[in-house]
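[Automated response] Your request has been received and processed.

Submitted sequence:
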Amino acid sequence: MGVLYYLARRLSLAIVVLIGLSMLLFLLARVLPGDPARIALGPRTPEYAVENLRKQMNLDKPLYTQYYLWISSLLKGDLGISLLSRRPVQDDVREYFPATFEEVLLAAIILSIAGIGLGILAAKYSNTWLDGIVRIFAYLGIVTPAFVWAIILLLIFGYWVPIFPIQGRISPDIPLPPRIIGMLTLDSLLTGNWVTFWDALKHLILPSLALAMAPMAQAARIMRSSMCSDLGADHVSVMTAYGVPQNRILTKYLSRLSLIPTISVMSLDIISLFAAAFVVELVFNFPGLSRYGMQAILNKDLNAISGVLFIFGILFTLITILIDLIVAYLDPRIRLQRRSI
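Generated structure:
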């Protein structure tokens, strides 16, 4: 019952957050400079044609009426027509979202495994040259934006040591697998097409690695700091005195305690991967939803901007709730506090 009550309370708060987000996105999309109807039709289009498009987009109505019409359509699953693709935005989302989700999913796997592993390694060899290398990498990774990592990786593995493709999702000579869920790697695995799987995975490595570098460094730093502070605790000294091997203390006991602050920060980092992908996908010309959203912003495609950002807002909310449940599972104190509410 405690878990169900907690979920119900978080979902009710999430609804309030999403309503506020919808208002904010609606206003931000309309205060951007430029006339979306004029941008869509071009500078030489007659004024009457531009005025007709404004009426079709409901731009001639008051803001509160525009918001009512937009939110009513949104609740029906209608995100409007994109001025760029001339298609329903929901169709564009279905086409481009699996690519971005696939990219972010691989980045999350990389940063989780490598970040936690590097943190444990640095804590085990604390104050040695290996610890120093991990700490330097952590500081460099945190202060370097994802798009800078994208350019660095593109130069290294795209030109100097060209072992990975630097643009697109798949090579032109590789056949696409039958669309099942839209993620090329999983679709090719489900259909047993290993050639397509390997090619799609190679196209994912550089964009995902560029997204994962900064969060990976952050996770390694927090994991190392938390484990080093726990190494001097009394219960660790008792286990050491009883002859428990250091590797077992680090991997079984201290790592679980240190995962709580690490996962809390990693959850925000994983959410931020969708935002960082806006520029990274442009660098690698990766046909995902983030690049689609960036092109919509540059061309003031109101329906596409609102639709893409609202989809990401829903994802952020759901991932936050999921991470809270994981942290509560790892930390019994949080479960006890939840039951007492």
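Summary generated for your ticket: Residues 194-231 form the longest helix (38 residues). DSSP finds 14 helices and no strands in the chain.
If you did not submit this request, please reply to this message.
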